[in-house]
């Protein structure tokens, strides 16, 4: 590990911005985690200038539209942020969306879905689909191509992206691709990497169970296929997928398991585990060359998609 990674992990150990054992107030937790996200972006990222950014409402769901071109028929990436369905929003992932927009010369629509515990399942999933439907109907006004839609997200946002891919297939909505950054796809939370990497690498096992209890307090909901997409019964005919995982992430096995399910069903799927990385590395891409490489790998994946 380089000194930057060691510094991040030391900060997480000492300050514990997300600690399930000390959570007493959601507002304070969000304030603390937002500050940590801001600090990470200041130290290990940079704000890339984008020519036009528009905040608007997608049938009641707040979204932020990033557009760096005056061109028409641009590819559109709908981005769902991570945060365990409890934390973060448009500002925490602003730099991520800027970088994706610039590097891929596309429109990015960042979705500010409702958070738990105020709004439990299926609130985030319904907001994710509402926003997607709005984009399909309205993005042409912003220069986007409604027939060139990609869903993408990290962690809980990876879950939303995977779930949207299944839902779009069922409702005959064409998706060009799904990009899943260290996705949370299994409500059982019992894959070996959760124990192996469940302490000392930013996202910890106990915190994951706490997040789950906030969004799906009813135990019977936690492994529904609509919220844990690894339990879907039909994986055929899904949008091409690129799945990103990290060596020291509790969700490492979730990502690989889901990639295997997609691949075995005959889908076009790519997978890459980023050595030395941990959960959340996409938000701090200058922490290590491997973290920034993930963005170039996403670009290569998108460039290789059939037109």
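Q: What amino acid sequence fits the structure above?
A:
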């Amino acid at each position: 590990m380089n000194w930057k990674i060691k510094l991040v992990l030391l900060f997480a150990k000492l300050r514990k911005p997300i600690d399930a054992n000390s959570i007493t107030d959601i507002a304070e937790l969000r304030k603390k985690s937002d500050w940590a996200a801001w600090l990470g972006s200041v130290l290990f990222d940079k704000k890339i200038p984008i020519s036009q950014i528009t905040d608007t409402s997608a049938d009641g769901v707040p979204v932020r539209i990033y557009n760096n071109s005056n061109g028409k028929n641009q590819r559109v990436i709908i981005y769902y942020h991570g945060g365990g369905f409890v934390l973060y929003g448009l500002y925490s992932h602003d730099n991520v969306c800027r970088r994706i927009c610039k590097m891929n010369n596309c429109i990015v629509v960042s979705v500010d879905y409702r958070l738990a515990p105020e709004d439990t399942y299926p609130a985030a999933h319904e907001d994710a689909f509402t926003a997607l439907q709005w984009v399909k109907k309205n993005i042409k006004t912003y220069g986007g191509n409604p027939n060139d839609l990609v869903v993408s997200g990290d962690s809980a946002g990876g879950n939303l992206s995977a779930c949207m891919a299944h839902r779009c297939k069922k409702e005959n909505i064409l998706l060009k691709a799904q990009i899943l950054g260290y996705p949370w796809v299994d409500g059982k939370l019992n894959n070996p990497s959760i124990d192996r990497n469940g302490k000392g690498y930013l996202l910890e096992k106990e915190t994951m169970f706490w997040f789950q209890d906030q969004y799906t307090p009813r135990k019977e909901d936690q492994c529904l296929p609509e919220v844990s997409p690894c339990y879907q019964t039909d994986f055929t005919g899904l949008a091409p997928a690129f799945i990103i995982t990290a060596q020291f992430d509790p969700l490492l096995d979730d990502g690989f398991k889901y990639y295997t399910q997609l691949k075995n069903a005959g889908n076009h799927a790519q997978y890459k585990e980023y050595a030395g990385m941990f959960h959340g590395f996409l938000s701090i891409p200058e922490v290590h060359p491997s973290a920034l490489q993930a963005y170039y790998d996403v670009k290569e994946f998108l460039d290789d998609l059939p037109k």
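Q: And what stands out in the fold?
A: The chain has a mean pLDDT of 96.
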